[in-house]
């Protein structure tokens, strides 16, 4: 089996327990996460080899992050240790009508100081068939964007499939470049895209046209495809936010000709929705390496649906759990 | 800005974790609360200066209560320390079809032994424009009722607005007086009232008339206003209890001529509904000091709606969080 | 009051907290449970004397189990200590669309090595009027089945009512006998049965006939009654699994002539559904000793409905709480 | 085996975790304790039947206290439920040079309102051979003192051994009587006494004479014996407080002619020293019912030495653990 | 009473529980601390008004820090909110022969970006008589050093006493200036100094001379005084590190003519030694405002000795607790 | 670098928190351990590649054990999954004069059913230079002993160094063979031995001769060497048990001619002494692969000394921490 490789920032997640407000706590749950890492952790759980490229500080906190990746069989053999600090995000878990709140403390992170030339991409991609990145990575710093472009180029040269999740974050992109000038050439070398209308507007000023939901989705896919000829498949997830504890969840996958539509799930009593998009991306990559497109989509939606019941950034469900849900069992019965 | 002052009992709240029954636990969460204090904590979070008058025992538990009030910027500069003990309530948190259960252990509290003359109300009210009390305060003891009447009278003399929350508690009023004989002269000097049909019946034998819900509400307001000419505004909250975890919530405000009706909220996955009425009262007082009546009502309903997602007695949401919900966003989306 | 006696295995339950996956935890909640014990704990909470017969290892874990039974007034005076180990089950608590997962580690347990002659059933049943067992007990080992048959026979001789819960578990019955050959003679001496169509099919190859749900239920009861003439009453519970956090719950009781049907409850925000069937059985036994059949059924359904809100294997609600729910109050209001 | 009976107050103990100060915590460990109950719990762990007489409020907190006594096989069959509240003590656990701090909240407790005639002592003492009380009991209220005297008299009539622990508490004795006038006639009917020089001075104005420690101890015993002819055995414990985490511990037992002296233990890394005196008393009562005087003393000292390593009010060590320490093994080696 | 003012950085402290290694935890205790804040918290606990000047980010973490200061009555009225982030330090608590380990993550903090002119020192010092800073403050950044110098100058102009704790930290001082060039002019305007031989060497290349410990101490004091004529009093603490759990602790105070020497304490079973030096400084400032020099020294040593038993950065003991220890009671007896 | 391989049983460790007795807890800490695994985890932390051979059940508990080994970089690539269950040990942590207590529940484990031929030892040892086992492994079952012998033989053939830790456990060896008949031929093919006089007596009836401690040690080493000519180095640790919280610790290493003696450490405030012997063995293997004999011994003693401060079965200290202690710094100072 060939490896899936991703590049991105790993963050320390400090979250309040039991829906407490920041001012009520004197302890934080401490976990590690980050969009691209979450994607890989999902894939590793499903059984494919994966490797993560990031930069971590050379201290005990960086070491702990390495150990956590070891635990979930995420390869860490090419991470250049160094820099000042691990980025952090503080999470106040919401419930019901009160949404979760994130306070970022990721400025000046080790990852933001990664440099071109630090990674021997030829070596990294030797046994790999896929490279994944998200819009967060180039949003962190010029250096991170440069390394990401460097990876995309080597990946294309070596014939890997390149995927991206648009993942637009308004509070990034602070280093003097617009998202559009950075993203345009990068997306132009990608084959699989997890898009979204808001991000497509922010990055590329694309406005889908149509009156029905479906027409709008198809229009968005076509406009992206017209802009970026490299793109082969476009996925779009659809979250209906009824409350912080109750969402609906579905997705589509456009393969150039057909718009595959997934089942729509009703998810109440949500445990943790952070990382749901990443779990979709991870399961989609796994699926596209394993199934036909329609099945890959359904696998990805079912997997990410289950993510809403898993604490933490990463989806820790097994392939069997996902397939059971795909098979139609949403009953939540006790498995003995 | 002028201060909001309140008089009432502060209780130590000992609650079970994770919906456990009393017989299952060997630890309690320990927090401080009490109807009038909860009102002030809300107001302080919104940014107005507040001061709480109560009586606390001169020991480490009383000191801890003071520190907790400091934390939330509730003024404690005029609290006469002394007496035997801090009142306690034990809370077994319910869920679903099982309601929460409260065991009171508040007899013989320090607050029940507060005495007329202990508080220099003229001094306390110097920079204040509002005095609040609830029906719990005079229900505790003759002494507490006397001090409350003393405060109401000075407040009226000094031109403060006086508000009350009827808050009828059947397990109080054990010192030989009927609620009616005590409450009648006190409510007669109040300007803003948080009423309710059950409490109005218990205290004043008032039966609203009408066939529709709205007619009954208007009737109740008119009867109260006829009985107590001082009253300028009457608010009434309306809780629909579908289960311990699912309620509906709305309120009305009658200003003498108009019955303002709030939006009605559907609140599932309730975190903690204790103190929701107090959070309404606090936000209403804040609102009446800040907005027009209709907005004040909507602010109060939205604030108290959010209280159902906050652990503890007091509402710790910010003005921005309330205004966001008032603006219509009930989606509970993650705020980054 | 006469005692209710039961025979069965007591297990150590090791469960993850807060819906975490097994791989995420470094601590387990530790509780004791087991189908027949859960039945007795319920009954003891309602006020009848009970006694449990099992086998426990002679070590500190076995001692702790004894103490837990003491706590809930479950008699332990005739338990033959010995054998290798306490059976264990690991529980990964699910939520929403992800069901709970149980990993059994009960092989080679002390209970599986109980022997005929270890229990002086005449002595045990001296002050008793009821003996209860479930299909789990004979499924554990030939020895456990033999002791169960021994108890059933003495109970019949001494005029006790004998009840059973079919409780079919596919992962038991590994000692070389089919469930049918073992269960047939045992059920043939029972008077009250908690049945179910799946278990009836597995144990006795019974297929109910009919088109409506009610016809099927009556058919099942009649077929069981035709097969086992000793049976006087048959109860069947009906769980609708909408998700791991949302179920519907009702039951019927057939007394030979009439099919009593209970109210149906809608239970959202489930806290812990393990042991709900046992809590039904316990409340039914209590009810049949206390009320008429229809009331007993309603009591049992209301009690087991409340079990879904109680952490742990056993139902710890009081008779008053059940009667309050039977009386129609599902509002979950705070009880002060 | 005959029962050991004791009369006293049961308190809810709310303690801070991990040596935190009261102002640092938002949760308390919750346990039950009380001098005379602690004595009985020890004895029950060693295997003798025991019964506790107290008064508990008729609420869920009182019920939980009953269940805890059930757990440790402390008989509760004659407890008159009623009164306002369970007494509480708050415990701030100290370490090193900072001692633990106790804040009492026991005024107006249910036990303080126990009344003569509530207990049928003849019935209680039917199968008993020993009655124990401590100086705390009559210090609580006139009513408690009356009931204690009532019990002592019936115990003497019925030929039980009566033991007392002087246990002087300066913050009790607030009901208008001096300790001396109350204690004098009560101690005059006791046979076994756990005394101490400070308490003997406070209660009876006794000043031991002598120059060596041993002379002083013998003098104290003789003066007590001269004052109270009923006394057969006097025990005195000796704690050397090097710090909150490091004590020395020994005791003597005077049987009228001989002063038995125990081994002296050096106890560092103390886990919880609350209740050590009670554990001594419990083990002494057990020892005097089981061994000769010298062995009883050594058993009691070893048992109470181990108590310093047990969290909570009560000593939960087994007879085997005590005998192992008596045998000289203080090594704390791992027992596999 | 006049205020004590301090300037410094406030850090979020994230510590492992129960002596766990960083790699073993998935939660951190979260507290706030910082050398100069710790000094003020101590003083506030003893009863003097205090005010802290720092810079905090304008987010929920900064707000929580403000609330914590409110709780302990540390004034926060002049803190300019802004900047990127709150500095963090990770603490792995050691025990026995393994020392605690700190990982700093304080680069790019809000405090490091404080600017001259942000603080109206005339206003801040209006009701103050004392200004305190430590060597950490100018070590953070040029900007912090500038603001500190600004404060020292205004304080001198307005006649305040200025104190400093040398507090040399090798991992600071990274902005291109040597500690010596920065510290020299600042210490030259100080009146009370907490010095140390290592810091004196690092900052000012001072080598004390002499053969006995006392000669060396006196030499150090004289050399400092010769170098900085403003200095009136020099304190030096002396820690003997036997293990992470066992230290000795004493101090001296040189007033220009006399070297006062404190009692030496033996502290085993240390709970938390972080902040002990700060607690000494705080108690010394309180003492010098309250007692004579010798008593101030003894108060400071006793207070900081107790700090070793208090979890967290700040010393939360009361004046009574300190005076009790000063009075010679190191027994750690239970205070009832 | 060549791999270190070990064969042994992996156990789930369920331990009580905070020195609580088994009967006091309703939760257990859950960790994984086992003598030979602990050895490897230590070595992996120091930086050498390691691989563990065991058998684990094919369920979520077995999977979690695999993940934990991944985390610490213990290779798991050749583990044959299967069998009934993971062995468990329950640990009641003692303190002071009360030792820790272990209750084993390891009968019928997956490891006890490992079979000859399941492991391709040639493949496993391909990149290895060392094989380690302990006396626990053959004590578990005949099958485990057979597999261990199989490994020893292949290791000898392939020129690996073979080490063993005698590790005598009285509660194993229940399958009908004496320890001596099994151990004799196995030890006869070992090169490095961690011995002990008690185990040497139990296994081989060896009685050392001499009067001084040193003579006895040399005698034991010589007798072992005379019996087993393959042995090149013998290590013996020496624990002085002053209490459960205070031990002394040292060791010797005999290389055939010289008896190297280590420094002796005084360890108070022990956090967790389980696995100290294993940590010695691990550090010794690392040391013998890295240093000369005398340094290896000192490294091993210092490392295992630090183990007493680390929670859990395995030693998680780094090489730097060990070398710092070897260098003489036992002060436990804070490392910033």
Automatic annotation (TrEMBL), chains A, B, C, D, E, F:
- Sequence ranges assigned to domain Carbohydrate kinase PfkB in this UniProt record: 1-314
State whether keyword Nucleotide-binding applies: no
Offer one Pfam family short name for this entry: PfkB
What keywords were assigned to this record?
A: Kinase, Transferase
Q: What is this protein called?
A: 2-dehydro-3-deoxygluconokinase
Which species does this protein come from? Neptunitalea lumnitzerae
Entry keyword Lipid metabolism = no
Q: Which family does it belong to?
A: Belongs to the carbohydrate kinase PfkB family.
Segments spanning the bilayer are: none
Which InterPro entries does the record cross-reference, listed alphabetically?
Answer: Carb_kinase_PfkB-like (IPR052700), PfkB_dom (IPR011611), Ribokinase-like (IPR029056)
């Amino acid at each position: 089996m060939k490896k899936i490789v991703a590049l991105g920032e790993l963050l320390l997640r400090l979250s309040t327990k039991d829906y407490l407000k920041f001012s009520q706590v004197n302890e934080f749950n401490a976990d590690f996460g980050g969009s691209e890492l979450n994607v890989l952790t999902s894939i590793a759980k499903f059984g494919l080899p994966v490797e993560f490229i990031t930069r971590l500080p050379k201290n005990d906190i960086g070491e702990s992050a390495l150990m956590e990746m070891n635990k979930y069989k995420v390869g860490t053999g090419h991470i250049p240790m160094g820099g000042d600090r691990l980025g952090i995000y503080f999470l106040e878990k919401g419930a019901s009508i009160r949404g979760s709140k994130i306070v970022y403390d990721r400025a000046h992170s080790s990852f933001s100081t990664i440099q071109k030339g630090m990674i021997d991409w030829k070596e990294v991609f030797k046994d790999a068939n896929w490279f994944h990145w998200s819009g967060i990575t180039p949003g962190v710093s010029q250096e991170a964007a440069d390394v990401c472009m460097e990876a995309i180029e080597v990946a294309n040269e070596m014939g890997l499939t390149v995927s991206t999740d648009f993942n637009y974050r308004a509070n990034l992109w602070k280093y003097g470049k617009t998202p559009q000038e950075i993203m345009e050439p990068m997306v132009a070398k990608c084959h699989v895209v997890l898009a979204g209308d808001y991000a497509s507007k922010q990055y590329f000023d694309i406005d889908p046209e149509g009156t029905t939901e479906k027409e709008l989705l198809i229009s968005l896919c076509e406009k992206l495809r017209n802009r970026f000829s490299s793109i082969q498949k476009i996925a779009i997830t659809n979250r209906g936010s009824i409350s912080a504890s109750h969402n609906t969840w579905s997705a589509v996958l456009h393969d150039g000709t057909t718009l595959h539509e997934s089942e729509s799930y009703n998810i109440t009593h949500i445990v943790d929705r952070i990382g749901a998009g990443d779990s979709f991306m991870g399961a989609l990559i796994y699926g596209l390496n394993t199934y036909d497109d329609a099945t890959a989509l359904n696998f990805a939606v079912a997997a990410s649906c289950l993510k809403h019941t898993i604490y933490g950034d990463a989806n820790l469900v097994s392939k069997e759990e996902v397939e059971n849900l795909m098979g139609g069992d949403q009953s939540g019965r006790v498995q003995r």
